[in-house]
Amino acid sequence: MLIDSHHRVHNYLRISLTDNCNLRCFYCMPEEDYEFTPHSRLMQPEEIESLAKLFVDNGVNKIRLTGGEPLVRKDAADIILRLAKLPVKLTLTTNATRLHDFVTALEAAKVSSLNISLDTLDPDKFNIITRRNNFTKVMDNIQLMIERNFHVKVNVVVMKGMNDQEINDFIAWTKDTPIHVRFIEYMPFEGNRWTSNQVFTWGEMLEEISGKYKPIALPGDVHDTAKKYKIEGHLGTFAVISTMSSPFCGACNRLRLTADGKMKNCLFSKEETDLLSALRGGQDVLALIKNSIASKAKELGGQFTKDFEKIHTEDLQNRSMISIGG
Predict the structure, then answer these.
(1) How far is residue 227's CA from residue 189's CA, in Å, rounded to a whole number?
(2) What is the pLDDT of residues 261-286, one digit of tens each?
(3) Between the chain's N and C termini, which has fewer beta carbons within 10 Å?
(4) DSSP run (H or E) holding 88
(5) Whole-prediction pTM value?
(6) What's the confidence (pLDDT) of residue 33?
(7) What is the C-alpha to C-alpha distance for residues 140 and 270, in angstroms, rounded to an integer?
(8) Do 38 and 146 form a contact (C-beta atoms < 8 A)?
(9) What domains, with CATH codes, occur in the chain?
């Protein structure tokens, strides 16, 4: 098992397949003309498979594929099918623009749950946030996945003054659609121009929703990052990921592997461990993994606390969200 110095067992690995993306969401990607990692510096399919197997052999039983947009990789289907052979629950986070091309591969790999990023239900605002005109395609593919019996979660990064007024529109969507909306507090990363007054908190979200609905809290797992709720009579549910106002680090079980093969023991950690170079050089990768986990901070990468109003982004040392992989 992979256990840190705070006695937390880590059994969940998030693997970024690429830092490339066909959208340009401003909170994720620093600039329009972003310099993506060259293919030679990315983990190759057999290297991803090898590293994933090492983690699985040491207790990991859930793997999530992320990006960038993971499905822009030409070999994405090959990677998905390779990892499907491992004894893990395999899931995927995507912007949904290319899902129609991967339905068969996802079904063959028994990927039954998808997280889809969608921050607005307004086509014009979608264009502003993503700097691309793909709203209809995203909505069509969400409907396609529901019709194909995938468990669909929709990730909504809530930003004050941008889309906070749409929260109840998303709740209304859950009325007749088995969609599971997850509202995410806006988090600071390199280049996303984050400020604390843009954070719309868990408490504020519940206050907004309670003005129109009566949320019912749902039971959760000790490792849940989302506080789950339902509205009586709705087919879908909603949840809040309260990273900024109410962190959930105490039972963290997650590890991250960037597309260029660097291990991050926390989303906000400034330290990284180069597993890909070690793998290519024939070094003891497992020892590096264990050393990284042993050094994991108690909360929030050791860089800030839940008093997010006091965060000075210029003091944070981290990558952009698209480079980390979420």
Answers:
(1) 23
(2) 999 999 888 889 999 999 999 999 99
(3) N
(4) none
(5) 0.93
(6) 65
(7) 38
(8) no
(9) 12-324 (3.20.20.70)
